[in-house]
Structure formats: C-alpha cells, structure tokens
Amino acid sequence: MYAGYSKEQIKKEVEKGVTHSDLYILSLEDKRSTETAPIKWKWQNSKPGGDKPSLRSGSSSVQISDTRAILFGGVFDSEEDEENLESQFYNDQYILDLEKCKFHPLNLNGPKQVKEATKTDTAEEEMEVDDSGADEAAAAEETTPQSEEIVHDDGVFTVRIGPSSQANNAGGEGGAAAGPQVVAFVPNPRMNCVMAHRQNTVYMYGGLYEPGDKQVTLDDFYSLEMNSLTEWRTIYQGSYDQQIWLESDDSDSEDSEDMEEEEGEEDGDSD
Predict the structure, then answer these.
(1) Predicted TM-score (pTM) of this structure
(2) Which residues, including other chains, have CB under 8 Å from residue 154's CB and lie 6 or more apart?
(3) Is the per-residue pLDDT at 165 higher than 70?
(4) Pairwise CA distance, residues 241 & 191, whole Å
C-alpha cells in the first residue's frame, strides 16, 4: 500500500488535507504456534527508495509479476484555504520493485517505424557530412588535435562522435545532427482509474479528471504491452468529447435548503 490522502483536524471545525507518501507491506507472520493456529497477518512500514513519484494521491497500480508492479497517474491538491484548492493531475508511470521497494520511471520506446526512420535519417546525414567534409578534414587533421569521443544517448539510440571519423572533425565543428524526437502515446492525466493485468498486458479504464471547477468521469479504455513497451493502445476513445456539462448554482441550492429549514421551523411552531 503506497501513499494516499486523509484529513486531520487542526482546530475546531477546521480540517486540513494531508497527502501521504509512506509505503506499507502486508505479509504473513513468520511463525505459527501450531498447524491449526489461525493465519496472522501484519503490516510493516517500509521506506520507498529509488526515483520516487512526486507527492500525490489517487494513483492506480497493478501487479505485473511476482516482483514488479506498475503505478499510473494521480493528483496533488494544494490548499491555500478551505475555499481555494488547486489540483495537479499526472499521467506519468512508474515501476515498483516489490522486493527492494524501489521506484523507477517507466519510459516507453515509441512506435517502431519512428525509431527506424530516425536511425535511417541520421545515417544518411552522417554519410552526407562524410562526402562533403572529407577534403577539409584531411587538410585540418595535421593541425587540429584529436578530440575526445562524445556519446549522445536519447534513450532510443546512441550516436558516437569521436576522432575515428574524419567527417566529425571537419572544420573543427563536426557533430551529428539530432534526429526527430520519439513521442510515445500516453493516456491523459487522471486519478482513480481501474487497472488490470493479463498475459503480460496492462489494461486501464476510466478514472476522474477535474478541469477547473468541473469533475469529469472518464470512460476511455487502453492497453499496454509490457513485452514491447511501445506505447499505450487505444481500445475505446471514450465519450469525453460528447459529454455535456450541466452547470449548478450553489447559491440556488443553498437558498432552497434555507427555505426548507424555515418551512420546517414554521411547521414546528404551528404544532
């Protein structure tokens, strides 16, 4: 059990929201007095480590193996006072090592065709630089000291810029051009979505989201293949775009409640 939200009373009729970041493990007690003795469970407090999520509540999680679980989204509420509340929703995702109680971000690989195109474009650009800068590199090689190898890794592929290629030192300003950024689709920010795992696929359904003063119940449906970790696949886009928000006037509701209370008092007096 990780994180959560509760309210504590700081003075009479005044409560303050508290966002928790603690981690508890429910496990069986090591020893039983006899074989017929009832099974006993115990909660143990454990300190989470690794690259932990930011402070939040309402995150959803599901166990994906004996030693790993995935956590998605959540919300952090910052309260200035009882009437002013700002909510920050998230759609980032983390893997929790259940044995070591350590978090690390779950980075998706992106669509395969994008990665292949990125690698091809980068290779072609390097070949063009080799052809156009070969003569200049040869002339400058005698007077230009060898530079150290530079490694650029954007998480998808690695580009090495070093003295082994003459083109990289052409004019003393050689370098590989940065390829297009790979973007993997992730569902919109939300809290309290339903998550399930089956045959190495994680499914996510619905949740809550609050744009401004509205509270929207989502009904979209997604899946993520844990073998490839390409990106979330949309099973059902949901009806968010078709939903109609019905405004409610708080003052009208309060007035009606006051009227009902007054009518009740009058009836009591008449009795």
Answers:
(1) 0.66
(2) 178, 179, 181, 182
(3) no
(4) 19
- Distance, CA of 228 to CA of 107 (rounded, Å): 11
Q: Identify which has the larger pLDDT, 127 or 30.
A: 30
Beta bridge partners of 198: 201
Q: Which two tokens stand for residue 242?
A: 């078709």
- Cα–Cα distance between 104 and 113 in angstroms, integer? 26
Tokens of 216: 């929207």
Element (H, E) at 11: strand 2-11
| DSSP H or E run through 261 | helix 250-270
pLDDT score for 164: 35
Whether the predicted pLDDT of 23 surpasses 60:
yes
- Could you give the residue ranges of the DSSP H alpha helices within 46-180? 112-141
Residue 75 in tokens: 């919300």
Question: Which token pair is 83?
Answer: 């009437």
Amino acid in the structure at residue 235 = I
Distance between CA atoms of residues 187 and 224, nearest Å:
11
Distances (CA, A) of 236 to 184, 192, 194, 222: 18, 18, 14, 7
- In sequence order, what are the beta bridge partners of 250? none
Question: What is the distance between the alpha carbons of residues 144 and 137, in angstroms, rounded to a whole number?
Answer: 9
As a whole number of angstroms, the distance between CA 93 and CA 186 comes to: 9
Both structure tokens of 201: 């696929």
With cut-offs at 50, 70 and 90, classify the pLDDT of residue 195.
very high
